[in-house]
Design brief:
Strand order of the largest sheet: 1-10-9-8-11-3-2
Number of helices: 17
Strand content: 15-25%
Structural class: alpha/beta
Length: 425
Amino acid sequence: MVTRTAPEAASEIPSSVPVSAAPIVTIDDVRAAHARISDRIIRTPTLISRTLSQLTGATVYLKFENLQFTAAYKERGALNTLLQLSDEARAKGVIAASAGNHAQGLAYHANRLGVPATIVMPRTTPIVKVVQTEGHGATVVLEGDTFDAAYAHARVLEAERGYTFVHPFDDPRTIAGQGTVALEMLEDAPDIDTLIVPIGGGGLISGMATVAAAATPPVEVVGVQAQLFPSMYNHLNGTTLPCAGDTLAEGIAVKQPGGLTSQMVAQLVREILLVDERHLEESVSALLQIEKTVVEGAGAAGLAALMSYPERFRGKTVGIVLCGGNIDTRLLANVLLRDLARSGRLARLRIRLQDQPGALFNVARIFDHERVNIIEVYHQRVFTTLPAKGLITDIECETRDALHLHRLIEALRAAGYETTQVELA
């Protein structure tokens, strides 16, 4: 578990952070946004999770935004912005820089409304994301090797061609649209007293916190960032924790939060928690196994915070947004297998054998006796420090749980086999 010692894990926003005197987005803006977009998006369910509630000691409600057509909440802010454009702006078209959910949400709704859309993506964007965005009717321009390069090029095209730039988070229209998530949650589950919200650029939490502050009584909002990308945390606390690394929560891997959203978070959000990669992985796996729903790393961040800081939320009625479900299938498979390994249901055992007939057969008999399924066997005779007549065998196997695995290892050692478990890094 990530410890809650500042500044590594949690922060309470200091009152010294400058904030705008007038609200950037009001509850009326969010309500107007909901009236504007509600018949064109999916009103995703907010459901209690009895299993997660039992596991965490909190009453846990989940908002399934991964069930939107493009599998992410980003549609809300994009659509709210599109619907407020003038006829002239619609005719000229819109542009955005994105390699993720904002690109697909904007492309989808622009296509539905007959608005030309151009999305600038880094050349390193996986082809599947390019194809998906083009499939929604957008023109994709590949430019630069980083998001910053793509963003800069999008602003150049905006100026040259008269497009309207649709920002993924730092725009009042976008923020108000994202805030509609909280409106629906609190209507469907009015007993929620705490919202746990992922933070990337800050659009979602800014909109949701606006709604939470206007509730009677006000609802507490706790932000969550990946430990590898604590950009909003740094900005509001004057810290310089590094923002880099290969995080599972790529949807909130933002190096620089928005200017507007930073002001709103400083004003409305009391605490930011950081979560590590292991808890993100475990949360993706838990949501698939318990709730039978697929989320991306960012979509699991709220649950990861709940699992990382159980004492912080015990006894509370918590609302968690499953903000997106766009995860590469190979990555998802890897996350699930790693979770099986951590729980002891999948293991690799390294066993020292004599290189003679029947050696492997005798080991396999022990696996059979313990009712453990062998998946794969790897023999190593050459690249080893053992004598020429010795060998190392790695056996991947499936067990029921960690206790079952422990019994197998003890049985192998009792039979005289030197046995070690190959641990995850």
